[in-house]
Amino acid sequence: LLHRLEGHKGLIPCLSISPDDRFVATASADGKCRVWTINDGQMAFELNAVPTNPDPEKQKSGNGAAVNQCAFLPQKNLLATCQIHAEQDSATVFVWDVDGKICPGRHVDGTLSSWRTLPLRAGGRVLSLASSLDSENDVLLSVGGSAGDMTTFDLSTAAAAWACEGAHEVPRVPGQAANHAVAAVEALAYSKGGEFLASGGVDGAVRVWDAEDGRVVCAFGGCCDKSGAVKTIAWDGDTCLASGGVDGVVRVYSIV
After folding, report:
1. Which band of pLDDT confidence, cut at 50, 70 and 90, is reported for residue 103?
2. Is a pLDDT exceeding 60 seen at residue 173?
3. Which regions are annotated as WD repeats (predicted)?
């Protein structure tokens, strides 16, 4: 054991290591995201959950909202965090720099139509984040929601590159009329080269998308027995990926 990183007062559902291997970020239900230096295990700084209207001065007080996701972006040590607003049953994604300040123009919220062209559906929450670089070396940030929607943002232009409503749908039950219910997107992961984005849903399926235009490349059904959710996805290069779900089984797929 090298270090014990202590201080959070709630569940830690997510962590992320910076591209330069200097920092590890931890998201917590206590409403805070902490960034630690890996070499000595000391806390570098703390990000409190902030109000919907981002004000760097207000981050010190926080508002008690849980932080359920965090992800370092592949450029400039930017860090994305997701804050859940329990009372409004909604969520907001923020992008920070490593000094703990909100980056101007990088606030993702359904009320800012110029930035988020496809807001989460009413009652939707962000359940998954993933980031990569596109062919022009610009940062892409993908967001998966509980309402079944998925949006990929281009951080160089602060606009949505593409979006999909109903990225995953609940399978039809034999003998029953189709209800077209959406399934939450619980896992997102980019391939090593950034060409593909894989998503896993409560429908037990894994879908592979073209990262730049949102075209479906292929899909795998039955990725979790007993109609269970796919909870995590990882890539081995650009052609092989693995998924894990609530049934306790890891499945490995090839897309070629």
Report:
1. low
2. no
3. 5-46, 185-219
Here the tokens at position 74 are: 């592949």
Instruction: Give me the pLDDT at residue 221, please.
Output: 82
Q: Is 42 exposed, middle or buried (0-12, 13-18, 19+ CB in 10 A)?
A: exposed
DSSP assignment letter at 171: P
Alpha-carbon span 101 to 113, nearest angstrom: 23
Confidence of residue 181 (pLDDT cuts 50, 70, 90): low
Closest residue by Cα to residue 212 from 130, 129, 145, 153: 153
- The rounded distance, in Å, linking the Cα atoms of 91 and 185 is 14
Q: Tell me the backbone φ, ψ of residue 70, rounded to 5 degrees.
A: -150, 145
Domains in the chain, start-ordered, CATH in brackets?
1-109 (2.130.10.10), 129-154+173-256 (2.130.10.10)
Q: What is the pLDDT of residue 247?
A: 87
Report pTM: 0.78
Count Cβ atoms below 10 Å from residue 216 Cβ, excluding itself: 12
